[in-house]
Amino acid sequence: KYGVQVTDSPYVVASMGIMTRMGTPVLKKLAEGAEFVRCQHSLGRPLPLKAPLVNSWPCNPEKVLISHLPDSRQIMSFGSGYGGNSLLGKKCFALRIASRIAKDEGWLAEHMLILGITNPQGVKRYVAAAFPSACGKTNLAMMKPSLPGWKVECVGDDIAWMKFDHQGNLRAINPENGFFGVAPGTSVNTNPNAMETIVKNTIFTNIAETSDGGVYWEGMDQSLPAGVSITSWKNQPW
User: Phosphoenolpyruvate carboxykinase GTP-utilising N-terminal domain: which residues (predicted)?
Assistant: First the structure.
């Protein structure tokens, strides 16, 4: 499935480069006439600015509007820079619009993690599990097993597209290409794999910055070196 998003946010462009499989192969498919979901996004702060920004984070919370048009395969988002409202290939397309496409075509788009589990005998099974947001779904998907000989692999932590094949087996894929997560509570104790993942190719937003160039958030469970101060995402001492 394909989508095209038009946005006035550099953050969205950079993030979608991480979160989706974008590039020349998609452009070739579009040139061949492939159907695609139309995604329009604006932060709602046109230039010249009429009011100052909070720490260079443009948005227009008084006029936020996110609209899904399943019949025309279209998404319109205005006024928000938050990931779920601005990265329209994520929840808006991959879950909401995709659930309508799936209904029309005979498959499923679900709010589910996918992980592979291999036992000590080498038998591997895949599990798809549905959980609401902010309940530990990502922590489960990225689990490090404590039982000797067991192996857990993360296929996806948020959305699953599922379809029965010709043999009657249920197949699932992760339509996303990266991870988008809420930082508070994430630490080496709660999700060590996530902490290793965000060492590179990661965009941090709405978190605190340390004076030595690092990042920080509630529940990170890491002590700071002596003399290091913290500044919040609103550019205030924390």
Answer: 1-103
**Residues 60, 78 contacting (CB under 8 angstroms):** yes
| Helix/strand/coil for 230 | strand
Report the predicted TM-score, pTM, of the whole model to 2 decimal places: 0.90
Q: How confident is the model at residue 52 (pLDDT cuts 50, 70, 90)?
A: confident
Query: Of 39, 59, 92, 135, which one is the catalytic site residue?
Result: 135
Residue 154 has a pLDDT of 96
Distance CA 78, CA 73 (A): 17
Alpha helices (H) along 92-238 = 98-105, 137-141, 192-197
Report the distance separating Cα 128 and Cα 26, nearest Å. Answer: 28
Contact between residue 103 and residue 111 where contact means Cβ atoms under 8 Å apart: no
pLDDT tens for 160-197 read 999 999 999 999 999 999 899 888 999 999 999 999 99
pLDDT (0 to 100) of residue 55: 66
Give the 3-state secondary structure of residue 69.
strand
Residue 59: active-site member: no
